[in-house]
Give the backbone structure.
Amino acid sequence: MSATGIGAAVRRKEDRRFITGTGHYTDDINRPGQAYAYFLRSPHAHATIKSIDIKAASKMPGVLAVLTGAELAADQIGNLICGWMIHSKDGSPMKMAAHPALANGKACHVGDPIAVVVAETLAQARDAAEKIAVDYAALPAVADPAAAQKAGAPSIHDIAPNNTIYQWHLGDGKAVDAAFRSAKHVTKLDIINNRLVPNAIEPRAAIGEYDAGVGTFTLWNTTQNPHVARLVIAAFVGMAPEHKLRVIAPDVGGGFGSKIFIYPEEVVALWASKRVGRPVKWVADRSEAFVADAHGRDHVTHAEMAFDQEGKILGLRAKTIANLGAYMSTFSSSVPTYLYATLLSGQYEIPQIYCEVDAVYTNTVPVDAYRGAGRPEATFVVERLVEVGAREMGQDPAELRRKNFIKKFPHQTPVIMAYDAGDYNASLKKALELADHKGFGKRKRESARNGKLRGLGFSTYIEACGIAPSQAVGSLGAGVGLWESAEVRVNPTGSVEVLTGSHAHGQGHETTFAQLVSERLGIPIDNISVVHGDTDKVQFGMGTYGSRSGAVGMSAIAKALDKIEAKAKKVAAHMLEAAEGDIEFKDGKFSVAGTDKSAAWGDVTLNAYIAHKFSGQELEPGLKEGAFYDPTNFTFPAGCHICEVEVDPETGNTDIVAWTAVDDFGVIVNPMIVEGQVHGGIAQGVGQALCEGAVYDKDGQLVTGSFMDYCMPRADHLPALRVDTTMTKCPSNPLGIKGCGEAGAIAAPAAVINAITDAIGSEGLTMPATPHVVWAALQKANSIPKAA
Amino acid sequence: MAMTMNGEYELPVPPQTVWEKLNDAATLKACIPGCEQLDKTSDTEFQAVATVKIGPVKAKFKGKVALSDLDPPNGYKISGQGDGGVAGFAKGGATVRLTPKNGGTLLSYNVDAQIGGKLAQLGQRLVNGAAKKVADDFFANFANAVKAG
Amino acid sequence: MAGETAAVSMTVNGKPITANVDPRTLLVQLLREHLRLTGTHVGCDTSQCGACVVQVNGKAIKSCTVLALQLQGADVLTIEGLAPADGPLHPMQEAFRENHGLQCGFCTPGMIMTAVDIVRRKGHDLDDRTIREELEGNICRCTGYHNIVKAIAAGARAMRGGGAAAKAAE
Ligand code: FES
Ligand code: FES
C-alpha cells in the first residue's frame, strides 16, 4: 500500500477550503445583477385557492415580478415527476397526481408554494409577499398515513381514490401462510417508523440565470445529482432542451438524500430568471426547509416472524402503509417497495417472505429517500422481530441470530436480492469481543447499584448498495439506468484530471477518487484533481446516493484507467522501440520486460501529446479516456452494531454509554473517511431512535418545524464510538468495494431500541424513545427496581 | 394546531352594563391586545387589524371578527379569523357568559384557537402561553374598562 | 426598509471597515453580503445551529443573533481571519483536518470558532465530557461529533504550543 493509495488514511484534499472558510456553497455565489426570490407558502394543510390578488404586492418597492401557478401554466412549464413506476397487485400503474411548481387552484400541504416574488433585495421580496392576498377555503386534512385510506378521509387528489397511490406486494403470500401454519412460535409487532426531517445544515438554494443572447439557462443548485436534475428539468418540466441547460452543483453542505430530488424552487428560479431577465437567487431559511425539503421514513407496519422449535426462522410477513406526502417526489415510489421489501431477509436464511405495501397521499410534505431509504425501515422490522422473538422464546439474541445467519454465498433470498458475499458470523464475533459482551452482566449490576437500568441491543443489518445494475432496476420500474461515468484526462506534463458523474457533499471524493488514480498510475496525489458537479464539464452521471460512489463511481474510473494504461503502453512501446506486449507498467514507470529500458510516466504522457515518436495515423495523439460502468449486482455491506444504554427509571432518560460497530464494507479506500461515514450514520440513526420525529397535528400543521422543536443529536447525546471492520471482498465490481455511507443510519435505530427494551424489560416503545416515552413504557411494565 | 383555555372575572357592574361594553367597538378595540383597527361593518361584524408576537414570529393579522349566538345580556360568541401573511393564520373564538353575582357580574369565557403555517411551526411551544396571555390581557383590559365606566 | 440606512464602523479580521446598512441587518448578513466573507454560514433561523459563530471582542457569539449596528467599534474575527492568508493554518484548523473533524464543511467554521473560544475559557487540557457539553450550541449533521471532539482536544493541546497563527488570533 502506498502512502496515498488504496487503503491509506489520506488527509482530505478538500479540507483546506472548508477550514479556512473559502469553500463555495451555492449561497456563497453571487451573480452580477442578481435578484432575489421569496416564496409565499400555504399555511393550510389542505385548501382550495379561490383567488390570489397580487396587485398590491406588484406595486411594492423593488418588485420585479409576482408570479403564480397561472403564469406557470401559461408559460407551459411542466409538472414535477416521480421517476420510478410501481404497479399495484392488480397491474394498475401508480396514481401520480399533477405536481406543479406553484400550486394551481389547490394547496395540498403546509408549505406548498403558492406564489413567488422576485425583487431587488430579499427584504423587499419578503415585504411584498406580505401584500399578496390569497383567499383560501380550508378543507379537512389528513396527515396520518394509517388514517388516509379510511372511509371519510378527505380526498387529496382525484386521481387517487382513498388516497391510495399503489397497493404493491412482493413474495409468495400462500407459501408464507403455510410456513406460519407450521410454526412453533410466532412473534408479532406493530411498528411505526417515525417521520424524519433530513436537515442538512446547509439549507437548499438555487440561482437561475438565463442568457437571452444564446438562449441558455444555468442553474447553480444544492443538488446531489446535477445531471439527473438537468434531465428532469429539460425532458419533463420542459424548461429548455438538455443542451441549453447547465446545472452546477458547487460545494454542497450535506444532503443525506434530501438533495437528490428535483424541487419546485429550482424550476421557479430558472423560469423567473427568464421572465425578469436577471439571475434569480433563492435560499431556503430553516423554517422554510422544514416544509419544503422532502422528509423521510413514515411507515406504519404490522410484521410477524415464524420460528420452528429450534428457533430457525420459517417465514416473515409484513404489511406496511407508507406515507408519501402530498405529492410523489422524484424517487419516492421506490423507497417503500424495492428499497425496502427486498431487504426483509436481513442476514438470515428465511425460506419465505411476503410483504404488502400501500403507499398513500396525505396533507404533508412529500416523503422520499433519506439516508438508508427503505433499508433502515426493513432492518428495523427484521432486527426487532428477531430480538423480540429471542426474548419471547427465552433464547440468547446473539445466538438466535447466529443460528439463522446465511452462511453460503451467493445466496438467493425470496425477495429478489442475490447476496454475493459476506461473513456475518465474523462481524458478530468481533463486535461481541470489542463490546466486552462477557462483561455486560457485571456492568448491569453496577448500573443497578446506581439505580440505573442497563441494556444491550444488537442490530445485525444488511443493506443493498452500489445502486445499481441498470437492466435490473429497469425491469423493476426505474425510469433511469444507474450506471456511472468517468473520464480521465492526462495532461502532457503527466498531471491528471478525473471527471466523474458522482458528486460529493461531504464524502471526500476529491481525496478517495484521487487515491485510486495515485495507486493505479503511481503519481503523487497532488498531481490529480477530481472534477464533478458541472454538466458542462462532465458529460453525464447519475450522482451520489445509495452508497454508490465507491462501488459504481470508482469502478467507472478504474475502467477508464484501464484504457489509459493500455494507450500509454502503446506510446511507451514506440518510445522504447519494443513490442506493446512487452511493456510493463508499475509504480509510475513503463519498462520493457527483461531489460533495463524504461520511460517515466511524465515522459510517456508528454510523448502522447507531442506525437513525435509514432505515426498519428497508426495511433491517435493525446491521452484521454472515458468509461461507463454498469454494475453487475447490488453490493451488500453488512455488519453488527451493539448499543449499550443506561436508562434512568426516575426520568426515563436514556444514556448511550457505549457503541460498537463492526462493518463489512469490502475493500476500503480510505479508512479515516469510512469511519467518519459510520459515525455520521450512527448519529442520525440514534437521532431517529431517541429524539427526532416530525409531528403533524390532526389539522396537518407541522408542529416540530424548527431546530427548537425538532431535536437532532448534539455532541453530548452521543458517546465516543468504537468502529471497526471485517472484510469480504465484493465480487461484483472490479475494486471489491461495497459502500459505507448509509450503514450507521440503517443499523442504529434497531440497536438502540433493542437496548432500551432490554434495559426496561418492556417491548412497548415507539420511536423516538424520548424520556417521556421510555418512562411511560416503564410505568406500564411496572418494572422500576427497588433502589439497591 | 389547536388549543383551548378558559377563565372568569368578577365585575362590579350588572350584566346589562357589561353587555353594552361587550358590543362597543371602541371598548373592544382598546382591549384587544395589539389591535390597530376595528371597524364595524355590520351590527355583528368587524374588520380588524392586530399585531401579535409569538416567540420569534411577529405577525400583523388582518381579518374579520364576528359576533354570534347573541343572548343579551347573558352572553355571546365572538369569533375571529385572521390572515397573518407569510406567518400563517390564526382563528378562534370565545364563548362569553355573563351571570349576575352579588349585584355585579361573573364573566366566564371559553376560548378555542387554532393557528397554522409558520406560527404553528415555530411557535408551538410558546403559542399556548402567548394565546393565554392574549386572552388574559383582553379580559383584564376589559374588566378595567368596565370598572372605569 | 430600503433607503433607510445607517453607517457602522468596526474592525473585521484586523481591517477597519465602514458600511451603510439597513438597520435590520444582522452581523452575519454584514459579513456575508456586504463584506463577502462567506466563510460564516447560516444554518437556521432560531439561533440553534452555531454555523454562524464568529468572535466579537475576543468572545464567540452567534452572528445571526446580533444586529450589525450594535457592533459599532467592535473587533470581529471570522474564520477567514483566524490564520493569515497563505500563512500556516491555526492549530485548531490543522487539528480539524488531521482528525477528520469535518465532512461537508458547512458547520466547520462555526465549530472551529467555537473551539477556539472553548480553549480560551477552559484551557488546553479538555476532556471528552467538557468538549461535548461546550458544543451544546453547535449542530453537525455529518460527523456524529466523534472526530470533532477528537479534533478539539488535539487542537487545544496544539494551541498551548502557540504557533504563529494562534498568536495572531489571540
Ligand atoms: S445561523 Fe446562527 S445559530 Fe444557526
Ligand atoms: S460537517 Fe457537515 S454539518 Fe458538520
Notes: The mean pLDDT of chain C is 93. The beta strands of chain C are 6-12, 15-21, 53-56, 59-62, 75-77.
